Amino acid sequence: MFCVSGWIFLCRFRHSSESGVSFPCPVGTFNGQLGLSSKDQCISCPPGKYCSSSGLDTPTGNCSPGYVCNQGASLSEPVGDSTGGRCTAGFYCPAGASRMEPCPLGTFGSLEGSFLSQRGAVSETDCHPCTPGFYCPDWGQSSAALRCPEGSFCPAGSAVIVRLVTRVRMAASSLPSVCLVLISLCHPSQPANHAHQGFALQVTIASAAQILPHLRRHPLSRPVFVTSYLQLTFKWSYCPVGSSLPQPCDSGSYCNQTGLHTPAGLCFAGFFCSTGSSNPSAMLCPPGHYCPQGTPLPLPCPQGTIRNSPGGSIADDCLECPPGYFCEQRGLTKPSGLCSEGYYCPGGQNTSRPPEYVCAAGHFCGSGSIIERPCFPGSFQPSPGQHRCEVCPARFFCPENGFFCSEGSQTSAPVSAVYGDICPPGHYCEIGSAVPTPCPVGSWRPDSGGKGTDDCMPCPGGQFQDQKGQSECKPCPPGFHCVNLTRGFMGVSTPLVCPEGFYCPNETESGNPVPCPKGTYSDSLGLISAEQCLVCPMGHFCGSDGLSEPSGPCAPGFLCFVQATVPNPTDNSTGTLCPPGAYCLLGTRAGECSAGYYCDWGSSSPEQSLCPAGFYCPTGTNKPLACTTGTYSSVMGNSHQENCEPCPLGYYCQGEAVAEPLPCLPGHFCPTGTSQGTQFPCPPGTMQPQSGTASIDECLQCPAGNSMCPPGHYCPTGIGSPLPCPAGTFSSSPGLSGAEQCQPCPPGYFCEQTAMVYPSEAALCDAGYVCINGSRSARPVDGLQGYICPSGHSCPIGTPLEVPCEPGTYSSAPGAVHCLSCPAGTMCPSPGTQEPSPCPMGHFCPVGTPEAVPCPVGTLGQVTRAQSEAVCVPCPTGLYCSSPGTSQPQGQCQQGYFCQGGSPNPAPLNTTGYLRNGPCPQGHFCPSGTLMPLPCPAGSIRNLTGGYSIESCLPCPAGHYCASEGLDAPTGPCAAGFYCPVDFSSTTPHAFLCPKGHYCPLGSTLALPCPTGQYQPNPGSDNCIPCRPGYYCEEAIIGDPRPCPPHSYCPAATMVPQPCPNGTYTPLEVGGLQEERECLPCPPGKFCKAGQVKGQCAAGFLCISGSSEYTPQATFQLNRDQCEWGAQCAGLCPAGFYCPVGTEEPLSCPANTLRETPGASTIRDCLPCPPRHWCQEGDPIPRMCPPGYYCDGIVDYESEGRPGPRKCPLFTYRPMSGAGSKGDCLTCPPGTFCNSTGLTDFSSFLCPPGHWCSGTGFPVPCPAGTMRAQAGAAAVSQCEPCPPGTFCPHPRTMGQPNTAGIPCRASYECPAGSVAETPCRAGSYCRPQTGDPTPCPAGYYCPEGSRTYSSPQQVCTFPHYCPANSSTMLSCPDGWMPLNTSGLRKSQESSCLLCGAGTYRPSHSPPLQCLLCPPGHHCPAGSHHYSNQPCPVGYFCPQGSSDPVPCPPGSYGNCTSAESLLECHKCPPGTFNHLQAQRACFPCGSSSTSDTGASSCTCIGKNRAFQQSDGSCLCKTGFVFYNELDFKSSTADSELDCQPEVRCVH
């Protein structure tokens, strides 16, 4: 028998028979062969498969996904025994997995919190990309646990750290110098044993703008096999701790380095930085905007400003909108437009209609106005906001400012110097000015016509005016500046001396002092050019503009030549680093480097750097000199070569600069000065196991025999002599058999010799190196025994582990023994610093600075790499610096305070530390941002601090004087004999000399008049003299006692002269009168008071003699002889007269004027004669107005101001007296023509013939077509129509009126009322004077304009005819022919014949006969043409047809214009036509037939009749037929024969 596959057949032998049993292969095995004989022949289930039952010939199937199946697996999901188990975290197992596949680099496999915790990962997609901000550098990681360090970034799926470094330069010349590198790898199909083979690095160059989106879309998911950091260049980003991607540099900041964890700084002022900027000046601020420091986007200039150039850094860089324009929007580069009409724009406006600058009433403002303009003379404007002025209406005038009017001016705008004039240049004249007012000091006006203080313009910058009423300003003299510090209306009246630190050239355009430039200063006042600014001296720097002294000494370690602008210059022009071999203090070379020390570039001490061991440094050394080979020096600070000693006995000194000799190597000896350890070997046959042998005599003979291997050696089997433990090891035990039993040299030490016995024999590792276990060299570099001390660390002698440099120190190169102090000007903020960072602006960094020290308040740091506080320059003059560590001032000093440098706040106090700043001192004023306290001008004081404008200075007190500028108290009292009045601001004790007749004690505010009875003949006195008798002495008299003056008389003992009585006077040259009667009567036309002629008597008064009043009221006689002394012969001007000012005789009122009451003053007081009256010259009584005249009393141009009797005007009359107005003159009645003035009657003034007259105007000609033969027509209706047969043309045409009609000519007609002849109408004729034309008789024709009908040419001729009223001969109409007969051709009926049937004739046909109608047409009687009458369808028309002929039955016609019967077609077979004139034939039915031309169809069945109506065949009457169903019918259509109908008769 045999076994099936998978079964075993076992044979068992018994006594008598042979038998066998088959067994299945067990679970976990299979075999597909037959005839197995042993269990061992069953094959274990292969890896990746499982065999779940016994007796299998093949495996059951693949291992389940998420599980691994080892050899012999019996389950698809093993439970974790030797046959397999679930896939663990960090790995994945696909179906049929024989081993777990590790998650690749950059990923991790976690089974927590997912369905994978039940079965395990099944594919690489179940491996998660490494979490952003972490990196996964190993295969098969189960979690992302390594956080990305600062300065680096780790995108999702990172297998390495991406660190930002400096530039990466590619080899290919076509690639950019700064590249961004993306890493991808060719993934191998099976990374067995995590091997690195099969991977290729691919480098793709991309732009910085592409990398971040790429990394976000495609995180690194492939493994990257590198042993160090992957370094990429991202200069536009920074990476905080835990970054998954580089963060683009913040907007407003820049990132110009790699490895940043914060932005490098803020964007420069004048530039803006968008996100990801690597340059602080990336993009220039565009026009219309400004960009402060750290601007992310340009800020638009505010409304009311513009900027047309780029690079603005502050809002003040935006300029005011120009005058006359407005700037409505933000960010403008040019104005929005012109100022609107009715408004004015002085500058800086943001709307075209600024409400605060509405044009005032009395002014006008056109488009684009800068100021409002006053209305011109003769115009006015009562409303505000207008663009033009209105013309003054009649009888009004418009008062005008800009003029001054002296006494007697007759106009508001005089142009004659007699009564005033236009306001001169340098002055202004407000309304009502009697004299021009001068423009104040500090202002000017170049033109005449100034109307107010606003017309006085302040002197512009760079000019001044110290006098009033000037038409131009003076240029500011060199060495002075003229700036309007008061910010008020007026300009500069006194130039100010140029302050320290500034120079003032002649005619500075803006008037501002110009600061001395950087690198210079000035401690003097009044400089006029930049050349006078002092060059910054050696050793100092001048770091800002406008300095009055150098900013300070230069930084230690630097040389400052002259004109240095920074404390640490390196431009080799203004300064440089201190040269090697020397040291520099206070900006100058202080001396050479001391012996035992060396000084590199920038040394600030003679002992800058101690000379290291192994070297020597003479005086002035810039670099240590090495001890030569064979010598050494173990001490530091050697100054001579002699300090280098020869290498001692038993040691060797290999190379230069040896600090410690090395023991001589075993087997060698070293005499004095040995330079190499193997230079002198022991001779053959000798040995020396110890190191440090000094001579050949110490070499030992080789021993004989065997002994235990000594300490420090090892003895392998078969060796003849002990072998020394190799360098780097030692052994204190004997009997070693191999080199591996020698102990390694301890850390921090090195064992350079062989055969060392004790660890104490090991030497300390050299400074600058780290020695690990087993170091054989004092300076190991292989990384196994040790390594050179890394950068950023220090390694003193015997270092087992490097020490990070502390903050404030650094180590830039490997092998540092100790960390160097951070150089001045730099800072080292963190442990392990490799390179110092430059000290930022606004800070300074002394030696060893861990963090930059901010410049104190009140100072600025304007340079980087500042080394000391001396670099912090005082805050510039006029500005304050309130924040520590700043590089720009915070703003201008507050008004009322001064800041001359180093101010810590806008309102500084005058403290010990800030003596140059503080509240504005007494005697001075300080505008905002002032460069220095400005002294109150001479003549003023200020006794308080804090003055902020010139208005803060008070006038010098009355009675005192203030002689100089900047006073806080008066200089002293006014001198005796002088006085100093209130508000005069006296600058001298002798302000005003005390006048004669007055006295002025010390400190007088006013001159005091001498009291009554005293006098003072001299000026400048402080007392008065008693008066002498015989003269008059009065208060404030000048000089000695004087004779009685004119206009007065002085009796004896007069103290005060007595004036002559009113009404009397004395001439000017007459004095010394004793009595009252000596005073003369006042002369005619004058009035006198107090003995003087005071003036002319008033208008309206008559002063003959002795008048004491300007307006005397007494009654008097005109007779001069009756006027006596003391009597007042004066009074009102008499009636009928007028008296001007000062008249000596009364003047008569002229004719046609009237003055009924006394007191007339001018001819204007002589009033017009009253209505209805007329007046004679000088007569106060009016008379009645005469007939033919009217007296209205109205003043007009015609009356020349004196209205008298006026003639009644044309077309009026006045028969009686007393007319008071023109309306009293009566209108002439209709029918009259009153063509003269002053009429008293109208009867002789009738309207002329040919006219009509309304009485109120000129004669009007009778209109065209009318006439008037008699005079006196009162209306147009009285003009008669022109009679028939005549015509009356328009009077203008003939030049004369129509008094009769003009006869009408022959061939013309003139109906009644004709204006002109009309040609005789057509069909009529006209003889002379025809009003109604005669009709033309029949047989004749009369064209238009005919004078007769009977001329031969007018007889009607053949072939025409002429009925009555014919204007032309008529042709016979269409369808008629002319008939030639005798006699007159009077009508159509008698002269024409109608065309007969079958003929035709057009009206104007040349043939006179009727024509025969052609074939295809028909012509009824009277036809005018055949073309519109074609033969219709179904008919034919032979020649001469009058009517169409129908096609006969059995035929049809299918076209028009058929000419004969032949065109009628026969009906085809199967059709018929039983009618005439048909277009087509009818079809026969299915039961009938027909031949050609049939008029009916023939039935097929017998005894049937054809029905023409529907084409059917019906049985004839009495016949029937039977159909196929044997039904009888007689009315149905059929082909069957009909048979006689049989009826049964019962």
Mean pLDDT: 82
User: Which consecutive residue ranges, at least 5 long each, have pLDDT under 50?
Assistant: 1-19, 164-233, 395-400, 406-410
Helix content: under 10%
Our estimate of the beta-strand percent is: 15-25%
In words, what does this structure look like?
- The chain is mainly β and 1546 residues long.
- Helices cover 1% and strands 22% of the residues.
- The protein contains four helices and 146 strands.
- The chain has a three-stranded mixed beta sheet with strand order 15-16-19, with no helix packed on it.
- Strand 54 and strand 55 form a beta hairpin.
- It is flat.
- Residues 1-19, 164-233, 395-400 and 406-410 have low confidence and may be disordered.
Descriptive labels:
1546 residues; mainly beta; 3-stranded mixed beta sheet; 3-stranded antiparallel beta sheet; 146 strands; 1% helix; disordered N terminus
